[in-house]
Amino acid sequence: MEDNFDSPLEGVYPFQSSDPEEAVVLYDGLMDVVGTRATSSGNGRVVVRVVDGLDVRWELDDEVPWDEPVRLRFQRADGSKFDAPAGVTNSAGSGYIQHADIRFTAPTLSNEASAEVGAIGPDEPSGADEPDLSYVMTHWFNMPSFHHTAPLRVRNMVYAGRWEFAAHGWRLTLDQRPDHSDAMKRAKTTTRSTMTHVGKLEHDTGTFTVAEASEVLAALEAAVSFALGTWVGVALPVGYDSGGRRVWEEWANWRCSPPISVFHWWSTHRSQDLTELCSAFLGHWLDPQLKDAVRLSSFHSISASSDRAAIEGKVMLAQAGIEYLAWVTHVLEGTETARTYKGVPTETKLHNFLDAARIPTTIPPEFTALRALVPADKQTGPQAVTWVRNRLVHPKDPSEPYRIENALSEAWLLCREYLDLLILHRIGFTGHYVPYRPGGWATQAYAVPWQSGSPAP
Length: 457
Prior knowledge:
By secondary structure, the chain is α+β, with helices and mostly antiparallel strands. The chain has three domains: 24-120; 135-261; 273-447, no CATH class. Helices cover 30% and strands 25% of the residues. The protein is built from ten helices and 17 strands. The protein has helices at residues 180-190, 210-228, 271-285, 291-306, 311-332, 338-342, 346-356, 368-373, 381-393, 407-426, and strands at residues 24-34, 39-49, 55-60, 70-75, 81-90, 94-97, 99-103, 118-120, 135-141, 150-154, 157-167, 170-176, 195-203, 233-240, 246-252, 432-433, 446-447. The protein has a nine-stranded antiparallel β-sheet. Strand 10 (150-154) and strand 11 (157-167) form a beta hairpin. Helix 2 packs across helix 4 (291-306), helix 4 runs antiparallel to helix 10 and helix 5 packs parallel to helix 10. It is globular. It starts with 23 loop residues before the first strand and ends in a 10-residue tail after the last strand.
């Protein structure tokens, strides 16, 4: 009996790298390195390194001019030419590409002709050659497996691998690689990032601009990373026109956290919550009046979760995110004056902010170490996390914040939970979240507390 299952999307760059270091090979062939005084030519390579983020590096089998900057010139097998701004790190023939926004001019759209393709640096105007995009293929790194919404077929295997998202006129189809489990196991033994999903971005109107696509991809990257508490790399976008011809590509340094698991509020068994989050997040991101607050507060959250800073720094990052969001809400958008609001004690401001969102202010019963550490008159959540933050900066003795084992970790988890719930409340999220509790199940989700009748965790 025949089935109607789709095959997974194919990325421009394959899941399995041919590079021994598992770098993604972007170009391998003849290359010119053009400096202000000299040009070097030879066989060259451009790759995306996958350790400590995703960054683009190049190398040439000849010495290169020691100039800053240089331009790299390429010619693909189809005869099309393009160039990219670059920097030199070694005159023996290597360097980096910080950002190359490659626009293909009209003559290169035919394989019968060869013409120059301009690469516009991050601070250069796009001019009149802005291409109309029909769709953009993207490559996602270190995205975990989650409950997808549609099955896919690969040869004789059917697996749950497609997530489809549509909101605000945009559509994203995101397909998981069929060997996801094995690929992530390999990645975690080396700490190298690995490509896990391929996405296709489209718009209901049929065409859109590079700038519009870049904004949407940035919003989705931030939303998914916020849901997971770690930076997912949404990288290597390649844009096509209505005739299916490649007209735009970006090479850049992309954020991507190591492939490790961290506490996160989203249950990967609930794809509907990811759909609601991305829809709400994108709506705020595309509104100039709302974008900065959701962007910067979510960046605080991700950094307070996955950053390699010591836990003391993460506590302060989370608290800074809460205070930033409170200031935006009550002073910049609300009725409080700066003078009046500054005079309110921090723990009072936090209590009122949480209470307005119906977020419980009691210290969770699991956090026994935090209760034991803080004074008897600081036994609410806002009082406890504020006291810990203050004692990290101004302790009465050097060991005071560390007197009770695990208390600092519990303060960090509670700060993160407050920040994440406040962000979710701000964007109008009505789904479920996983509380940050030691020993809890990563998939045990509860309705957000501002939902009527939602049970407490």
